[in-house]
């Protein structure tokens, strides 16, 4: 058992290092650093870029198409009008949120991850931190960009909006916040459902199908229920136009954050209990 | 590393049934059993990926979740493909190393050690099974762990790779580490392991030094055909041997051919055939695990010695 070629390698290991001799403890900042590295070595991360571009492109298109106010719907004329690209952007960002988690399960990477971090919860927490930091910056930037691009198209045609006007900043930043929360919701669903297709279907059901289904019961209490869904509540925060029955902006934000937090509570509970 | 009354139930299926054993530092402990015997499940519980239905696993005295520096305590190679195919070998190891503050130089070191330094920046998805296995070994060694848990590490390796991992594991054990590896190949275990734990259908079948296992497996029997076989059988049994009669022949266990021949001569019995036979290791292992693979009733009651009549079919030892 002493082939020189092979045992020469084991010599490099030196003696086993008793636990504690080197500082190889798992800490949250370290797991965050790991998740940061993972996010940027993943090919689906350009989805963030796609979502940003979609937002900016829609800002330009909507700005261009709404130069002449005659015959336009009220939601196209308010400050949040040029930000309606969020509707497409949320699918991209939500998918990214799912993939960051479900990708671990579909590839088996999760076994290596949890062997390194057997307590598991730091991984969930670190993913939330990294995703929030990256996506919040990108989505607020995208939203601000879409807003200004649209204002550039509108200037000279009709009165434009400035960020300093009442509620405009809330709406513009709020759209970025809304998108970030949708991405986080995707992540929570990823932890709960674990398979990529299953989690994507669940996410799209929650953000697209459920609100439409409730429309079938128009004129009943369902109208009210729809305002309390993550999307309805979040929209109340990120739009300038308020219809009766909709939540107040900050209430809407609180409700949406509660949904996301509740989803993560379920995810964390299952994560600790289930076999990886 | 100690497993105590370890049990894992999936619905109605009992995958691991009350396993108690330990693996000591300084030796290679082989974990042997047919496919589906519960080896992988047991190893997943050792690393904390699966929760035992009952019982406990302690590695270096603590539960898998209780280690402050997990990679420094247990290095694991579970299923080969525990990685994202879109990452390079280096960034895969780097992402694991970062969780514990393990530096870049250590990542380079283990890449070198497993022979992947040249392909470190290639996408893991393009790796062969053997390269993937080497990367898994690199990940297991990353934290310089005191205990190594390796599930079928030779799967997918070529002959060179098998030799490499064999001497690597023996070297790691010689450094004072606990090395615990599973295999369904008896022959490989006999070469690599110092101690063997055999499981079948989730139950513990053997837990003994490999030398003892080999000793027991090497049961000498003698096939005898003679003029009055019944009379000779009684004589042989009287001398303390076990006899299995079949037609005009018998298989004798526990008596040498010289002794049987002398007994026959004394009773004026004509010997037609007197051939010593030894069961192969593979046969012994098959006989041991047979009843656990299925419950089909057959001639073999699972005792090592009675596998002798199977020695004619050469296994892939």
Domain tally of chain A:
1
- Helix tally of chain B equals 11
The H-level CATH homologous superfamily of the largest domain in chain B, spelled out, is P-loop containing nucleotide triphosphate hydrolases
* Distance N to C terminus of chain A: 36 Å
| Percentage of residues in helical conformation of chain B | 25-40%
Report low-confidence residues of chain B grouped into runs of 5 or more: 295-317
For the record, the count of structural domains of chain B works out to 2
Main sheet summary of chain A: none
State the name of the first-level CATH class of the largest domain in chain B.
Alpha Beta
pLDDT averaged residue by residue of chain B: 87
Q: What's the CATH architecture name of the largest domain in chain B?
A: 3-Layer(aba) Sandwich
Strand and helix map with partners:
The complex is a heterodimer of chains A (276) and B (317).
Chain A: H1 4-11, H2 28-40, H3 46-65, H4 74-77, H5 86-107, H6 109-116, H7 121-154, H8 168-193, H9 196-215, H10 222-227, H11 230-238, H12 249-273
Chain B: E1 2-10, E2 13-22, E3 28-32, H1 39-47, E4 54-58, H2 70-73, E5 74-77, H3 89-98, H4 104-113, H5 129-141, E6 147-151, H6 159-174, E7 178-183, H7 186-192, E8 195-200, E9 203-209, H8 210-217, E10 220-226, H9 229-238, E11 242-246, E12 249-253, H10 257-266, E13 271-278, H11 281-293
Parallel strand pairs in B: 3-7, 3-8, 5-6, 6-7
Antiparallel strand pairs in B: 1-2, 1-4, 8-9, 10-12, 10-13, 11-12
């Amino acid at each position: 058992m002493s082939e020189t070629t092979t045992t020469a390698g084991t010599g490099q290991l030196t003696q086993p290092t008793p636990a504690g001799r080197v500082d190889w403890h798992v800490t949250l900042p370290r797991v965050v650093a790991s998740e940061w590295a993972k996010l940027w070595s993943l090919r689906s991360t350009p989805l963030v870029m796609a979502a940003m571009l979609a937002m900016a492109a829609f800002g330009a298109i909507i700005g261009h198409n709404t130069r002449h106010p005659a015959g336009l719907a009220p939601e196209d004329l308010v400050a949040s009008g040029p930000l309606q690209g969020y509707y497409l952007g949320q699918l991209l960002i939500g998918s990214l949120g799912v993939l960051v988690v479900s990708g671990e399960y579909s590839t088996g990477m999760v076994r290596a991850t949890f062997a390194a971090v057997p307590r598991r919860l730091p991984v969930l927490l670190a993913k939330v931190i990294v995703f929030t930091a990256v996506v919040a910056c990108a989505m607020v930037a995208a939203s601000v960009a879409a807003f200004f691009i649209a204002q550039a198209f509108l200037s000279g045609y009709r009165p434009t909006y400035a960020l300093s006007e009442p509620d405009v900043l809330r709406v513009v930043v709020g759209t970025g916040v809304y998108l970030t929360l949708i991405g986080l919701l995707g992540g929570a669903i990823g932890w709960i459902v674990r398979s990529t297709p299953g989690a994507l279907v669940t996410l799209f059901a929650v953000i697209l199908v459920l609100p439409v289904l409730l429309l079938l019961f128009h004129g009943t209490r369902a109208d009210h229920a729809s305002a309390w869904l993550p999307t309805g509540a979040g929209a109340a925060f990120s739009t300038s136009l308020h219809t009766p029955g909709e939540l107040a902006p900050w209430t809407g934000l609180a409700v949406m954050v509660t949904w996301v937090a509740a989803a993560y509570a379920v995810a964390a509970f299952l994560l600790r209990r289930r076999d990886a | 590393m100690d497993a105590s009354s370890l049990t894992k139930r999936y619905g109605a299926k009992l995958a691991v049934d009350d396993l108690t054993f330990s693996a000591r530092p300084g030796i290679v402990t082989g974990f042997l059993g047919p496919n589906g015997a519960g080896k992988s499940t047991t190893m997943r519980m050792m690393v904390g990926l699966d929760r035992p239905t009952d019982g406990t696993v302690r590695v270096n005295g603590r539960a898998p979740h209780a280690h402050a520096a997990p990679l420094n305590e247990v290095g694991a190679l579970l299923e080969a493909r525990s990685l994202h195919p879109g990452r390079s070998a280096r960034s895969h190891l780097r992402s694991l190393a970062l969780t514990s503050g393990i530096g870049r130089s250590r990542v380079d070191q283990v890449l070198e050690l497993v022979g992947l330094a040249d392909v470190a920046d290639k996408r893991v998805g393009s790796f062969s099974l053997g390269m993937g296995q080497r990367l898994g070994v690199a990940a297991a060694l990353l934290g310089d762990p005191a205990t190594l848990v390796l599930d079928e590490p030779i799967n997918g390796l070529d002959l060179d790779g098998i030799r490499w991992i064999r001497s690597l594991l023996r070297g790691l054990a010689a450094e004072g580490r606990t090395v615990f590896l599973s295999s369904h190949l008896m022959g490989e275990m006999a070469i690599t392991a110092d101690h063997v734990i055999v499981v079948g259908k989730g139950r513990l079948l053997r837990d003994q030094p490999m030398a003892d296992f080999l000793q027991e497996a090497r049961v000498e029997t003698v096939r005898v055909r003679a003029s009055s076989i019944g009379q000779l059988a009684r004589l042989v049994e009287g001398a303390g041997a076990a006899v299995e009669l079949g037609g005009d022949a018998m298989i004798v266990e526990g008596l040498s051919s010289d002794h049987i021949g002398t007994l026959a001569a004394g009773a004026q019995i004509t010997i037609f055939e007197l051939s010593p036979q030894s069961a192969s290791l593979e046969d012994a292992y098959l006989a041991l695990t047979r009843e656990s693979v299925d419950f089909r009733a057959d001639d073999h009651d699972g005792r090592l010695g009675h596998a002798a009549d199977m020695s004619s079919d050469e296994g892939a030892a």
